[in-house]
Design a protein that fits this description.
elongated, disordered N terminus, 302 residues, alpha+beta, 47% helix, 8 helices
Length: 302
């Protein structure tokens, strides 16, 4: 075999530039110090209550940041189209102003969600926020130039803003689809469990008033006995899969609830409904019954 054949026979490393860069970003510990300070400040500034729940998206059942971001980015893209086609400058200014107005609640919702993520997610989210902040600054400058009658400078700043917003959107997609930030981590269980009732064990084996973990096939369960009644939920928190059986049992509006030990999401034990975020998706629940011989049986709630 000649030298040229030897060289061609050597395996070539096929790079994944974008993926490698994002992998390094996820493990960039140099970002941890500002992240810790900012996340703590956000959590202390936006404490538990209806404001934080609204920013997480609890009332609508899924995170509110993505749809708000879609509106803002849509306005910025529309501005670029109006600039490219040299349409009415007033229309471009109006659409651009709408995008900037939407950016504030979008950022508030985003930073609230970000403050309760895992560290790897927070590192990517931190750079995502910096890119979007740069985009907003550039678009604000663009609007100022346009109002002053300097349309050419306004279009230049808008183009730069779109590049920054595109980088931010790319990182946001990585957060959502690769790192599963904002996704429901408590998959619906009805298709994982055969129909009918399933034995969970004797009720006498369950401590009264203290949640424990049990397993049903592939599913980890949160099980709580209160007197002669037993309540069962999927154990992995819908926010980021925290173990609910390690959480604290509390009472909200007269109803027993469990607080996730990882990020403080509160679920009503009776049906898994979200009482407080950051979780927005309902926790899968199970129907229960106790046979005459004391064996607890469960099936997915209908």
């Amino acid at each position: 075999m000649d030298r040229s054949t030897e060289k061609s026979a050597k395996p070539r490393k096929i790079g994944n530039g974008g993926g490698d860069l994002l992998d390094r970003l996820e493990h960039a510990t140099a970002l941890d110090r500002p992240i810790r300070g900012l996340a703590k400040a956000v959590r202390s500034r936006i404490g538990p209550g209806w404001v934080r729940d609204a920013l997480h998206g609890v009332p609508i059942g899924h995170p509110v940041h993505p749809p708000l971001a879609t509106v803002a980015v849509g306005c910025f893209v529309a501005t670029a189209i109006l600039d490219l086609t040299k349409s009415d400058p007033m229309a471009a200014r109006t659409v651009l102003a709408a995008g900037l107005a939407t950016a504030l609640p979008t950022a508030a919702a985003g930073v609230t969600d970000w403050s309760t993520l895992h560290r790897e997610q927070q590192r990517v989210g931190f750079v995502h926020a910096l890119a979007n902040a740069a985009a907003v600054g550039l678009y604000a400058g663009s609007l100022a130039f346009r109002i002053a009658g300097r349309e050419k400078a306004g279009r230049f700043f808008a183009t730069a803003g779109l590049m920054a917003a595109s980088a931010g959107a790319y990182l946001g997609g990585h957060l959502a689809y690769r790192l599963a930030a904002g996704a429901n981590h408590a998959e619906q269980v009805s298709h994982l469990v055969p129909t009918g009732w399933h034995d969970l064990g004797p009720i006498s084996d369950l401590p009264n008033g203290r949640p424990v973990a049990r397993r049903l096939g592939y599913i980890d369960l949160f099980v709580l006995r209160l007197g002669e009644g037993v309540t069962v939920l999927a154990d992995g928190c819908s926010h980021l899969a925290g173990p609910l059986h390690q959480g604290r049992v509390t009472v909200e509006n007269g109803e027993p609830c469990v607080v996730c030990p990882w990020h403080g999401s509160v679920f009503r034990i009776a049906d898994g409904a979200v009482i407080h975020g950051p979780a927005t998706a309902k926790q899968p629940s199970f129907e229960t019954r106790v046979r005459r011989d004391g064996v607890v049986q469960v099936r997915p709630a209908r």
